[in-house]
User: What shape does this take?
Amino acid sequence: MDKKSIQEKILRKLMAMNPQKWGNSHTEEDNLVKGLPKHLRGTKIVQNAIEELYKMEFLTKLKKTGEWHVSLNPSKKEDIYRFLGLPLEEK
Assistant: This one.
Protein backbone atom coordinates (compact mmCIF):
# COMPACT_ATOMS: atom_id res chain seq x y z
CA MET A 1 0.00 0.00 0.00
CA ASP A 2 1.45 3.37 -0.95
CA LYS A 3 1.15 6.62 1.00
CA LYS A 4 -1.62 8.11 -1.17
CA SER A 5 -3.84 5.04 -0.83
CA ILE A 6 -3.33 5.10 2.95
CA GLN A 7 -4.34 8.77 3.02
CA GLU A 8 -7.41 8.07 0.89
CA LYS A 9 -8.45 5.22 3.18
CA ILE A 10 -8.13 7.44 6.27
CA LEU A 11 -10.10 10.31 4.71
CA ARG A 12 -12.83 7.99 3.42
CA LYS A 13 -13.07 6.35 6.86
CA LEU A 14 -13.71 9.71 8.54
CA MET A 15 -16.31 10.56 5.88
CA ALA A 16 -18.03 7.18 6.29
CA MET A 17 -18.40 7.43 10.07
CA ASN A 18 -21.83 8.24 11.43
CA PRO A 19 -21.91 11.17 11.87
CA GLN A 20 -19.21 12.24 9.45
CA LYS A 21 -16.18 13.68 11.23
CA TRP A 22 -16.16 17.26 9.91
CA GLY A 23 -15.27 20.22 12.16
CA ASN A 24 -16.69 19.84 15.67
CA SER A 25 -17.48 16.15 15.19
CA HIS A 26 -14.23 14.31 15.96
CA THR A 27 -12.76 10.95 16.86
CA GLU A 28 -9.66 9.81 18.74
CA GLU A 29 -6.47 9.92 16.70
CA ASP A 30 -5.88 6.23 17.43
CA ASN A 31 -8.98 5.40 15.36
CA LEU A 32 -7.30 6.63 12.14
CA VAL A 33 -5.32 3.43 11.66
CA LYS A 34 -8.02 0.94 12.66
CA GLY A 35 -9.19 0.43 9.07
CA LEU A 36 -5.68 -0.35 7.82
CA PRO A 37 -4.15 -3.83 7.59
CA LYS A 38 -2.56 -4.86 10.90
CA HIS A 39 0.92 -5.22 9.41
CA LEU A 40 0.87 -1.51 8.41
CA ARG A 41 -0.33 -0.01 11.69
CA GLY A 42 2.42 1.91 13.46
CA THR A 43 4.77 1.81 10.47
CA LYS A 44 6.70 4.81 9.25
CA ILE A 45 4.74 5.06 5.97
CA VAL A 46 1.45 5.34 7.89
CA GLN A 47 2.86 7.96 10.26
CA ASN A 48 4.22 9.94 7.28
CA ALA A 49 0.85 9.70 5.52
CA ILE A 50 -0.97 11.06 8.58
CA GLU A 51 1.58 13.84 9.10
CA GLU A 52 1.18 14.88 5.48
CA LEU A 53 -2.62 15.07 5.93
CA TYR A 54 -2.01 17.50 8.81
CA LYS A 55 0.43 19.55 6.68
CA MET A 56 -2.13 19.74 3.85
CA GLU A 57 -4.59 20.89 6.54
CA PHE A 58 -7.04 18.13 5.60
CA LEU A 59 -7.09 17.03 9.26
CA THR A 60 -7.37 19.19 12.36
CA LYS A 61 -6.15 18.04 15.76
CA LEU A 62 -7.31 19.07 19.22
CA LYS A 63 -6.83 17.78 22.76
CA LYS A 64 -10.03 16.38 24.29
CA THR A 65 -10.43 14.20 27.39
CA GLY A 66 -6.65 13.84 27.62
CA GLU A 67 -6.42 12.29 24.13
CA TRP A 68 -5.73 13.81 20.73
CA HIS A 69 -8.86 13.98 18.61
CA VAL A 70 -9.03 14.61 14.88
CA SER A 71 -11.62 15.74 12.38
CA LEU A 72 -11.78 16.70 8.73
CA ASN A 73 -11.19 20.38 8.05
CA PRO A 74 -14.48 21.81 6.70
CA SER A 75 -12.68 24.72 5.02
CA LYS A 76 -10.72 22.18 2.92
CA LYS A 77 -13.80 20.17 1.90
CA GLU A 78 -13.46 20.93 -1.82
CA ASP A 79 -9.75 20.04 -1.76
CA ILE A 80 -10.46 16.78 0.07
CA TYR A 81 -13.15 15.80 -2.45
CA ARG A 82 -10.76 16.63 -5.31
CA PHE A 83 -7.96 14.61 -3.66
CA LEU A 84 -10.30 11.61 -3.42
CA GLY A 85 -11.63 12.08 -6.94
CA LEU A 86 -15.18 12.54 -5.67
CA PRO A 87 -17.74 14.85 -7.29
CA LEU A 88 -18.21 18.05 -5.32
CA GLU A 89 -21.44 18.20 -3.37
CA GLU A 90 -24.18 20.59 -4.43
CA LYS A 91 -24.39 23.56 -2.09
